[in-house]
Amino acid sequence: VQLQASGGGLVHTGGSLRLSCVVSGYKFEVLRVGWFRQAPGKEREFVATIWSRENVADSLKGRFTISRDNAKNTVYLQMNSLKPDDTGVYYCAADKNRFTSSYAYWGLGTLVTVSS
Fold this sequence. Notes:
Blueprint: E1 2-6, E2 9-12, E3 17-24, E4 32-38, E5 45-50, E6 54-56, E7 64-69, E8 74-79, E9 88-95, E10 105-106, E11 110-115
Parallel strand pairs: 2-11
Antiparallel strand pairs: 1-3, 3-8, 4-5, 4-9, 5-6, 7-8, 9-10, 9-11
């Protein structure tokens, strides 16, 4: 399973970005796909996950949404009302097991920088 994240960049506070994660190498429809982020000097943290339904970290609900397009083998992370604290490297990950919280496959991250 290979994952390619894209869509990061520099945005001002209050702006929006949409990240994309293209997955290949396995039947996309059965994969659980998630987004994580890591800010400078901090541990990686969960952002959102999706399989048959979505789950977004409580602290990000209302600003971030996750969706998937099975026809394009792609998962999206829509980020609105961005804040400087949202700055970090965003990673997408996937797993074949729908009933665990771990992820076996990881892509390279995409950098999001939110300026104040």
